[in-house]
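Fill in residues.
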């Protein structure tokens, strides 16, 4: 029986992916480890599969990134993910082809069938995403940035949005707040079952309920009028609200502005914690305690997973854990 990559890995005392990286050069490996792997290859007489060498020789060095443009998503937040993918791809000598249109799936099928791209990354994954079944049929490896209900065995990475929502709720509960409101994205975002929106809201509400707290969840539509209407609804149904969890990057500045107009002081009268980029939280007036979104890290990990798939190894799903940064916008409730 011919020697396999697994045999080499076992003989060298390393993982299969490490052997693949030594062979492909797609990742830096320490010289000591590299020499151990090469020694095992020589001793066992391992010959890389001719088909794999042929595939590498025909590589286009182009990755496709499928990213629908949604009007209710802050463009600069989306572009942070794109930047993470782009930087990681370029560091590995790969180029990036952006497919932003909703009909990008048809174009993607054509590109993969003609071997115009080496692999695919897909963003804005929904809980029940109709694209996933199609992505699973493509002839090129695919990595999802997000987690659908059924990933169809595709590689995927994500941020733990449920834990992020829960962390915000725990933070406010520990400060003694009993009546909290969750201000989320627009109705359209929830209607399309954007995974980040649904999971963050559910994580927060489940935690608040477990802590025996009163909670209201409201959607916030685009523009200042959407913020005004959401806060009016909130104070009608839960007038004694003392804390807000906000996960709507487009609405956050207007929420703070509207509270100020209503003479509701943050944090003296209303504590606020948000899921948003670090710089948005720090630059807000006042600065807001927040759980940051690791966009760059997710983009980088997605490229690393795609490279692993191209090297013939199957990466495990990755779920990044949240951390909360207090900034003074939430205070203890006496």
């Amino acid at each position: 029986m011919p020697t396999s990559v697994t045999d080499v890995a076992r003989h060298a005392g390393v993982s299969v992916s490490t052997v693949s990286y030594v062979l492909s050069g797609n990742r830096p490996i320490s010289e000591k480890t590299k020499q151990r792997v090469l020694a095992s290859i020589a001793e066992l007489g391992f010959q890389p599969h001719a088909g794999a060498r042929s595939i590498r020789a025909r590589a286009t060095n182009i990755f496709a990134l499928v990213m629908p443009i949604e009007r209710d998503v802050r463009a600069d937040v989306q572009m942070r993910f794109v930047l993470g993918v782009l930087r990681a791809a370029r560091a590995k000598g790969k180029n990036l082809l952006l497919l932003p249109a909703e009909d990008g799936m048809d174009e993607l099928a054509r590109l993969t069938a003609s071997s115009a791209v080496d692999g695919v990354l897909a963003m804005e994954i929904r809980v029940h995403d109709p694209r996933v079944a199609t992505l699973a049929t493509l002839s090129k490896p695919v990595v999802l940035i997000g987690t659908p209900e059924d990933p169809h065995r595709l590689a995927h990475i994500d941020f733990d949005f449920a834990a992020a929502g829960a962390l915000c709720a725990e933070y406010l509960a520990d400060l003694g707040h009993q009546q909290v409101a969750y201000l989320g994205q627009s109705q359209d975002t929830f209607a399309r079952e954007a995974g980040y929106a649904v999971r963050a809201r559910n994580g927060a509400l489940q935690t608040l309920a477990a802590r025996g707290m009163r909670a209201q969840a409201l959607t916030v539509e685009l523009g200042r009028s959407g913020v005004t209407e959401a806060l009016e609804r909130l104070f009608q149904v839960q007038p004694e609200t003392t804390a807000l969890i906000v996960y709507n990057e487009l609405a956050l500045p207007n929420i703070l502005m509207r509270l100020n107009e209503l003479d509701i002081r943050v944090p003296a009268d209303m504590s606020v914690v948000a899921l948003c980029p670090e710089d948005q939280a720090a630059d807000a007036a006042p600065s807001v305690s927040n759980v940051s979104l690791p966009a760059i890290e997710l983009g980088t990990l997605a490229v690393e997973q795609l490279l692993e798939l191209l090297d013939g190894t199957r990466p495990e799903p990755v779920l990044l854990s949240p951390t909360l940064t207090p900034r003074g916008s939430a205070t203890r409730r006496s």
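Confidence is low (pLDDT under 50) at residues 50-55.
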